[in-house]
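Consider the tokenized backbone below.
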């Protein structure tokens, strides 16, 4: 398991009975997590005094109860800063477990000793975009949500990366890749975090298990002749790390060689010193 353990402004305080108790900066949040199928014998003292609680609805979705929480606030990861706010479906605008991937590819970018052009697909609020830009890469940030792209721009501004070489694009990711193929544009590195389920611009249904191989195959066509890395993230329990690694082998490694590895992402729980699984990643990188 790859554990994101370099945070100072985020802490997973406890995890029990389908819920997380987390510290985001100075605020305590209580949120559901279906992967937490155990019950702790010891209960953290902050469970009953959270600043905000997300409660699921029997009709689907849910809502936040804010006891003592501002509309938005900021936390840091090293020199990167992120504006947080309670969003629909229990989110805050950041997935802290992804920091372990930020550290991984930032090291590759800094060590490359050449200009690196990164494409970040399904780029959300820009955590990976900012990490890559801070490491010295130029980044093309693509997401279908105008609101998420606006949030990514704000995060870049407060991180001091407003003038970094980042190009923000609101578009369907697959359609964008298809156009990049026709235009002949190439990238040295790819990051993608496709959703588990969604609908395309013409109403077509996206289901990651059915579509991820096609998407990776398509995106591999816009890798440069000397690519640095390719990263896929998944939060779908039906798509194992090994399955993503196999797809990467068929599509990227078959042409470029290199090294592939896969694993679960995790966060350490302060109360127990154990790690909660938080998704999975498959990574390809050059041997150079």
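A designed sequence for it:
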């Amino acid at each position: 398991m790859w554990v994101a353990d370099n945070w100072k402004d985020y802490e997973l305080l406890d995890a029990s009975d389908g819920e997380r108790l987390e510290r985001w900066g100075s605020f305590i949040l209580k949120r559901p997590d279906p992967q937490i199928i155990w019950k702790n014998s010891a209960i953290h003292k902050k469970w009953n005094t959270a600043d905000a609680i997300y409660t699921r609805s029997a009709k689907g979705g849910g809502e936040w109860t804010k006891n003592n929480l501002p509309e938005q606030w900021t936390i840091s990861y090293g020199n990167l800063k992120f504006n947080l706010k309670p969003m629909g479906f229990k989110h805050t605008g950041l997935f802290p477990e992804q920091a372990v991937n930020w550290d991984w590819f930032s090291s590759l970018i800094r060590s490359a000793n050449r200009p690196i052009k990164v494409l970040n697909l399904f780029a959300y609020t820009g955590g990976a975009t900012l990490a890559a830009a801070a490491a010295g890469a130029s980044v093309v940030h693509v997401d279908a949500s105008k609101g998420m792209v606006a949030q990514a721009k704000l995060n870049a501004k407060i991180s001091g990366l407003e003038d970094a070489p980042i190009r923000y694009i609101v578009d369907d990711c697959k359609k964008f890749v298809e156009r990049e193929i026709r235009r002949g544009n190439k990238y040295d590195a790819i990051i993608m975090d496709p959703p588990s389920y969604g609908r395309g611009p013409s109403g077509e249904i996206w289901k990651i298990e059915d579509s991820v191989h096609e998407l990776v195959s398509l995106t591999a066509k816009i890798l440069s002749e000397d690519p640095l890395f390719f990263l896929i993230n998944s939060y779908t329990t039906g798509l194992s790390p090994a399955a993503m690694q196999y797809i990467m082998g068929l599509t990227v490694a078959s042409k470029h060689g290199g090294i592939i590895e896969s694993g679960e992402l995790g966060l350490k729980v302060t109360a127990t010193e154990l790690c909660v699984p938080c998704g999975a990643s498959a990574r390809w990188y050059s041997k150079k």
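The helical segments are 99-111, 127-134, 146-158, 173-183, 208-220, 241-256.
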